Amino acid sequence: MTGTEGDLEQFSVLRRQAETILKDRIALSSSRHASLSAADALRALQELSIHQIELEMQNEELHRALAEVDAGKERYSNFYDLSPAGFCSLSDQGIFLEANLTLAGMLDLPQRDLVGLSFARFIAESSIGIYNSNFHKLIDFNEPQSFDIQMLNMLGGTFWVHIASTALINTKGSRVCRLVVSDVSEMFQANEALRVSEDQFNSAFHALPIAACITDFNSGCILAINHHYSEVYGYAENELLGHTATELGLWARPEDRAQVLAMVQAGLPVHGHELQVRRKDGSLRWISYSVDKVRLHGADCLLSGAVDISQRKAGEATILRMQAELEQRVKERTAELEAANLELEAFSYSVSHDLRNPLQAIKGFSDVLMEEYQDQLDEIVKKYISRIRLGAERMAEIIEDLLKLSKANRSKLTRAELDLSGLCGRVAEALALARQDGRQVEVCIQPGMSVRADPNLLQIVMENTLGNAWKFTARTGQPRIAVGEAAGPGGERTFFIKDNGAGFDMAQAGKLFQVFQRLHSTAEFEGTGIGLTIAQRIIDRHGGRIWAEAEPEKGATFFFTLPEPVEP
User: Fold this and answer.
1) Is the CATH code 3.30.450.20 the one for domain 208-308?
2) CA dist., res. 413 & res. 419, Å (int)
3) CA dihedral for 461, 467, 470, 475, sign (positive or negative)
């Protein structure tokens, strides 16, 4: 029977009771008055009709009131069942008396099936103690309780809930517990993620290999440090926390602090800022300082890091001092070299003027003796005069080569685009004309070779290297010289001059580019032993290298590199 049907039955009972009372009153009146007049009977009927109408009106009003009550119950039922929170009533033994649809959905069980079950069967084992403790307080002391526990659903899933509970006495005099159950799993997951994140941050913060510190942006108070921070500044953690760097005098120069704060407030990056700090013992250290503005626990903070660079600074100071000393030594050495160059220039002048004239005189007088007194001289004297003439000529060649060597060392290097193939061709033609020994030397020159070098100096290189190849093929039946370009070590441009002449023993290769060092006697091949030295000096000035490979009687190959100049 519904609530509305019960109310109607109650009103019917009341109506019957009223009719009984009315009959009793009529009977009583009849006993008092044996007979009623017609007028009295009519008045009685009218009165009864009025009461009947009043009762009908009251009955209609009662029906409207009952309809409103039913509507209210339906609205309450909707709110109760469809609320985002779970609601339930438990007995004082923790047995479900009723539950709304939301809680039934949490537990994955039909609403009607919950009635009669124990609430405790849906609680995770890890939370059963918390539930029992709070439920007993609720029952025994009638104190409302609020707590968090982990629950289980019928599918085996777990979720966290917050329970707010209270107890009351129902109309039957029994104690009933009302529970509001809110699913807080997402909040717990967020809190757990936050906890893990904070743990990771703390682990990373303390594991940083630099001095790290967190300070409050507004007050400047130190909130956290790692152990490297204590090492750099010489303070224990409890001496730093809650204080500011200004209070402790950590800034060696207040203007550094002002500059850093101004940059942070302006949103400018502060990374690798080098400054000095003061330790607890008063000593100063250099640090590389970085700081960023961060948001921690809802407050603006500064996360700073410092790397102790005192040793590097000391090393830099040492390097600067050594550099200054080196620059001074270079100046002194340069002055010595300039003086030596002046002496060399004076020597060159002396060679070109003071030595040439006597040599020319010796050669000239020897020629006169041979021409004017040839008939009066015996063969021994003529032989001596010939040796004097040859010695003078050789001395003149040496002097000329020394002047070329001096020029190779001192002349200004002017690079230009140069057709190396064309230059080699001209040098080969000049050699053929100058030698006039009737030999047919096959010269093969790779076309299209071009370099950026000093034209005058590179011509001297090719004259010496090609001349060297020409000279040492003098005793070869079919002399052949090849000039070309090959891929060198590391991909650098490498040029070669190859011949099939006398060659040499590689054990003596170290003498090749030394002044006056010869691998063959003058009786075998002419020369002063300076030409390759001159070639090496010129190649060195161009930033290249020169070397040779050879084998006795199987020819020799000279290689040299000419790297592209680096633009300033």
Assistant:
1) yes
2) 17
3) negative
Q: What is the β-pairing status of strands 442-445 and 480-487? A: parallel
Q: Smallest Cα–Cα separation from 158: which of 124, 117, 191?
A: 124
Three-class DSSP labels, 205-269: HHHCCCEEEEEECCCCEEEEECHHHHHHHCCCHHHHCCCEHHHHCCECCHHHHHHHHHHHHCCCC
As assigned by CATH, the class of the 83-190 domain is alpha beta
CA–CA distance, 144 with 135 (Å, rounded to integer): 9
- Tokens 């029952």 found at: 139
Residues 41-78: tens digit of each pLDDT: 677 667 766 766 766 676 766 667 666 655 555 555 56
Domain 413-561 -> CATH class: alpha beta
Backbone angle region of 505, left / alpha / beta, with phi > 0 → left and psi within -120 to 50 → alpha: beta
The half-sphere exposure of 335 on its side-chain side, counting CA atoms within 13 A, is 5
Closest-CA residue to 244 (of 214, 202, 271, 283): 214
Report domain extents, the chain: 3-80, 83-190, 208-308, 314-386, 413-561
Quick check: 506 pLDDT over 80? no
Find out whether 231 and 213 touch, Cβ atoms under 8 Å.
Answer: no
* CA diameter of the chain: 216
pTM flag (> 0.70): no
Alpha-carbon span 409 to 331, nearest angstrom:
20
Please tell me if the domain spanning 83-190 has the same topology as the one spanning 208-308. Answer: yes
